[in-house]
Amino acid sequence: MSTLAPSYLEYPHRREGYDHDLYAWSNMHARPPVTWPQGSVAVWLCVSLEWFPILPGGPFTAPGHMVTAYPDYRHYTARDYGNRVGAWRFLDAFEKAGVKASFATNAAIAERYPELVAAVIAGGHEIIAHSTDMNGTIDSTLAAEAEAALVAEAIERIERASGVRPTGWLSIARQQSFSTPGILKEQGLTYCCDWVNDELPYRFANGLINLPLNHELSDRQIITVQQKSAASWAESMRDAFDWLAREAATSGGARMLPIHLTPYIMGLPYRIAALEELLAELTRRPEAWFARGDEIVGAWKAQT
Amino acid sequence: MREGASDPGLYDYHPYNARPRIVWPGGKTVAVWVAPNLEYYEIDPPVHPKRKPWGRVHPDVVGYAHRDHSNRVSHWRMTEVMSRHGFPGSVSLSVALCQHHPEVVADAVARGWEFFSHGIYNTRYCYDMTEEQERAIIEDSIATVRAATGQTIRGWLAPALTHTPRTLDLLAEYGFDYTCDLYHDDQVQEVKVAKGRLASIPYSLEVNDHYGFFVYNMSGREYAETLIRQFERLASEGEKSGTVMCIPLHAYLIGQPHRIGPFEEALRHIASDGRAWIARAGEIVDAWRAQQ
Q1: Looking at residue A167, which CATH number applies to its domain?
Q2: Do A239 and B259 touch (CB under 8 A)?
Q3: Nearest Cβ partner of B217 from A15, A194, A227?
Q4: Which of A8, A139, A235 comes nearest B124 by C-beta?
Q5: How far apart (Å, rounded) are the C-alpha atoms in residues A116 and A87?
Q6: Please, is A20 exposed, middle or buried when counting C-beta atoms within 10 Å of its C-beta (0-12, 13-18, 19+)?
Q7: Taking residues A205-233, what's their average pLDDT?
């Protein structure tokens, strides 16, 4: 039988606080309460606009990427359906509900589908930088210089193609390297959405803000991973909203409900009505403040 | 256990239909205990030759941050709901949490919860440990929890459910009263150990929230309904001989905003039914032991 090295029982980071220095610990329920311009629950709709090259690449393969041997027409086209059809259904649904959203956008989407990105901007929605394309994944196997170049390229290409320079960043699969918070800060970004450890914004040690985009509440997690129906997804969103509204009322501190949407998942004909009905219901709730990511970050920043 | 034998020899076979009658206090038919896992997962742990700690290259941001949600947000959501309906916790504790986030441990102490060890970190696995190494983590667990809470731990749930062939014998030698590592029964059972004695308390792994949400892919409401069905059946069968139902939890799962409301309804149902003896793990083991 093999044995373990003595170092396996050494704990060099066993100390008060975290085993890293990226951000400090705090208990959300014990922080000074924050308020929103209206209501007590910020509802943050965040849509991912993703272009998957038919040839996968990058440090790791993004969720939703090609599955079969080359050429995988099935997954290439089924993902692109979201950009051709599903995202337009979202835009109509948001306009009908009178709500603004964030669109985490690959640079390749801004370049390839300018009509879509122009409609997103014209609708009053926010563009969040979402890497170059779905091969633009990041993890600690990527050299820091290469990662910095990837982030800079993504922001620059989005700005050149859309005319808008994003202030927020969403990594593919929310995966970062140990260098990412430093690189995002150096690139002049205000916030990222990758760390799902909180339900309100907080600051990294370097001043970058994290706006947590709960992956458990995403259509990808509930519908694609857990294989639930759109109706079950909507029920979970309503249960979450109800709980957060109650928690805000009893604690006096505002809360946030992130709703992460994927055009090729929730934008299908048989699912879109569940989103439309949810929006109709939540926009009638006095506790709801529908806001873009940058608006939530701005409101929070002004109070903390 | 019998190392190398095809039957590890953990316990004797006792058919469910021919057991001595177990009676719980107050004539209750099912002992219900809630086992929140209060854990710390390291962001960059050493890699064990037999198990990778994370699915992605470190830092696995979603994996780490998801679990960190417990210690920033959902612990207090879960504990408030439990306290509101009269459920104490019997905590499966990554004992290094006493160092990292003493505020979380202090909250559980203040609520009168019981602690048992779940290893040092949930990212350090026991496979291939020498006897000396395994004694070191047991002794570390006892000393760390005693210093942080004043309690002497009586139970064990192996870190990330990783064991060696000698784990259960060592627990008995150190005077532990129960293990949560065996899933063969709905009643407390005797474990065969080299010296002394050790009870196996049902931990109901199949209704662990991780199983509910990530093995069986339940919604929050489906999981709550599962807990109620589990309770109804065990409460009914417990009329013949007292049964045990455990609700094993992780705050980062059950304390998510879409799940905690339905979970509260399940606790409300169990607490108001009248057949549940809501207790801590040690109390259940003691009541069973007194009837042996």
Answers
A1: 3.20.20.370
A2: yes
A3: A227
A4: A8
A5: 8
A6: middle
A7: 98
Å from A248 to nearest chain B CA? Answer: 12
Whole-angstrom CA distances from B9 to B129, B157, B180 are 21, 19, 17
Phi, psi of B75 (to 5 degrees): -55, -50
What's the number of domains chain A is made of? 1
B73: nearest CB among A171, A198, A242: A198
Query: CA–CA separation, B268 vs B84, rounded Å?
Result: 9
Which uninterrupted H or E stretch holds B142?
A: helix B131-149
CA atoms within 13 A on the CB side of A42: 30
Does the distance separating the beta carbons of A227 and B61 come in below 8 Å? Answer: no
What tens digit of pLDDT does each residue of B224-261 get?
Answer: 999 999 999 999 999 999 999 999 999 999 999 999 99
Q: Is B210 on the interface with A (CB under 8 A)?
A: no
Asked if B124 reaches chain A (Cβ–Cβ under 8 Å), the answer is: yes
Residue of A nearest to B95 (CA): A14
Contact A1 B71 (CB under 8 A): no
Q: Provide the residue range defining the domain that includes A59.
A: 36-301
Tell me how far apart the alpha carbons of residues A187 and A152 are, in angstroms, rounded to a whole number: 7
Q: Is A13 inside any structural domain?
A: no
A12 contact residues in B (CB cutoff 8 A):
none
Closest residue of chain B to A224, computed from CA coordinates? B217
- Render pLDDT for B70-80 as a digit per residue (tens, 0 to 9): 999 999 999 99
Quick check: A25 and B62 CB within 8 A? no
Question: What's the average model confidence in pLDDT over B145-174?
Answer: 98
Fold of B25-289: TIM Barrel (3.20.20)
Alpha carbon distance B23, B181 (integer Å): 24
Segment 127-186 of chain B within 8 Å of chain A by CB: 128-130, 133, 136-137
Domain boundaries of chain B, sorted by first residue: 25-289
Distance of CA A125 to the CA centre of its chain: 14
**A12 within some domain:** no
Contacts 24+ apart (CB under 8 A), A141-148: A141/A59, A141/B57, A142/A59, A142/A177, A144/A177, A144/A179, A144/A183, A147/A177, A147/A179, A147/A180, A147/A183, A148/A179, A148/A183, A148/A186, A148/A187
